[in-house]
């Protein structure tokens, strides 16, 4: 039986504006998986832990956050904050020994987004 | 303020594993300021409990709410609004709050979500340090405002021990020797001479050694 994971992507506005241009046609051209639901945020530093957790409660099998490089965030420290929050959720995951459906949480650098369809397929 | 930190998640999940309706109750006092048990932390904890119980195959309703404080009867009475909606409370207050719920709600199950750590302050974001022991007999007027009771590993009252090296405590080179700090500060304030007066033998009965403490202000009681 094939399994199509429900993946939620939270992407920084400054990261995603190019990819989301033209009603997302560019993403389609990049063969971006349809099972990935993208939410743009003003800055990944604005993302709260609860937002990531709610995505899992909502049934997501994986959540990933794409933001600017740690030393190149448009809002200076937003990416660093986001990386820590992703780590907090991942740490909670470890303490709960939660492995159902292999649920995972990642933080990617902005320059990964164009290659993330490849990463996701892995 | 009272400083606290969340207990390990697995410990909290184990406490509530047999509960069906759980109220995660935040406190908007000290534990909000130290980011351990405010509304945001309670919401996160409620979500984690839901996920943890789901993983364990348990079915439970978990919701979060908050009180202004959990260390006053008037605010504890606010729990009444949730009557019938919970069979256990997970309090994200300090130990005082958990005790107050237990005192005032004799038939309610209440569990602590936090480990209450100390009375302290935050000199920089995300870092807290202990500053007061609550010993009940303050000596700060003799020591330039720096507390040897809690900030000296041995609670020495008449200067440093022999383990102080380069202004650091022998228990940890990251810990300042508070007596070195007191000496330096009193010097800056031109009060160093005061340190030559021996502190009298200390009466610890005002501290924990005299059992649970109570304070009555007749002018405030009604």
TrEMBL record, chain A:
InterPro entries for this protein: MvhD/FlpD
GO MF annotations in UniProt: iron-sulfur cluster binding; metal ion binding; oxidoreductase activity
Domain of life: Bacteria
A Pfam short name: FlpD
Domain F420-non-reducing hydrogenase iron-sulfur subunit D as annotated: residue spans: 9-100
Keywords tagged on the record: Iron, Iron-sulfur, Metal-binding, Oxidoreductase
Protein name in the entry: Methyl-viologen-reducing hydrogenase, delta subunit
From TrEMBL, chain B:
Disordered: annotated span: 200-222
Pfam families: DUF5981
Highest taxon of the lineage: Bacteria
Name the UniProt record assigns to this protein: Methylene-tetrahydrofolate reductase C terminal
Every Methylene-tetrahydrofolate reductase C-terminal-like domain range: 111-205
Lineage of source species: Bacteria, Pseudomonadati, Thermodesulfobacteriota, Desulfobulbia, Desulfobulbales
Organism of this sequence: Candidatus Electrothrix aarhusensis
């Amino acid at each position: 039986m094939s399994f199509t994971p429900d993946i939620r992507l939270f992407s920084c506005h400054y990261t995603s504006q190019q990819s989301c241009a033209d009603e997302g046609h560019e993403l389609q051209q990049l063969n971006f998986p349809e099972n990935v639901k993208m939410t743009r945020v003003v800055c990944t530093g604005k993302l709260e832990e609860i937002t990531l957790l709610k995505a899992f409660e909502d049934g997501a099998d994986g959540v990933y956050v794409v933001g600017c490089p740690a030393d190149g965030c448009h809002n200076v420290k937003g990416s660093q904050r986001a990386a820590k929050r992703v780590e907090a959720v991942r740490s909670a995951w470890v303490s709960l020994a939660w492995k159902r459906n292999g649920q995972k949480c990642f933080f990617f650098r902005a320059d990964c987004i164009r290659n993330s369809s490849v990463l996701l397929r892995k | 303020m009272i400083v606290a930190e969340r207990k390990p998640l697995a410990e909290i999940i184990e406490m509530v594993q047999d509960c069906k309706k759980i109220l995660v109750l935040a406190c908007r006092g000290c534990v909000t300021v130290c980011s351990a048990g405010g509304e945001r932390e309670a919401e996160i904890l409620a979500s984690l409990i839901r996920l943890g119980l789901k993983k364990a195959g348990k079915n439970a309703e978990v919701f979060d709410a908050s009180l202004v404080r959990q260390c006053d009867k008037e605010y504890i009475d606010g729990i009444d609004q949730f009557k019938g909606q919970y069979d256990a409370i997970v309090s994200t207050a300090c130990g005082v709050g958990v005790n107050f719920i237990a005192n005032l709600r004799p038939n309610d199950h209440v569990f602590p979500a936090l480990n209450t750590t100390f009375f302290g302050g935050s000199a920089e974001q995300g870092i807290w340090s202990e500053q007061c022991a609550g010993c009940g007999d303050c000596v700060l007027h003799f020591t330039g405002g720096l507390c040897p009771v809690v900030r000296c590993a041995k609670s020495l009252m008449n200067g440093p021990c022999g383990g102080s090296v380069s202004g650091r405590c022998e228990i940890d080179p990251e810990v300042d020797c508070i007596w070195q700090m007191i000496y330096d500060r009193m010097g800056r304030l031109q009060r160093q001479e005061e340190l030559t007066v021996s502190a009298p033998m200390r009466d610890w009965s005002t501290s924990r050694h005299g059992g649970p403490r109570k304070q009555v202000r007749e002018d405030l009681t009604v």
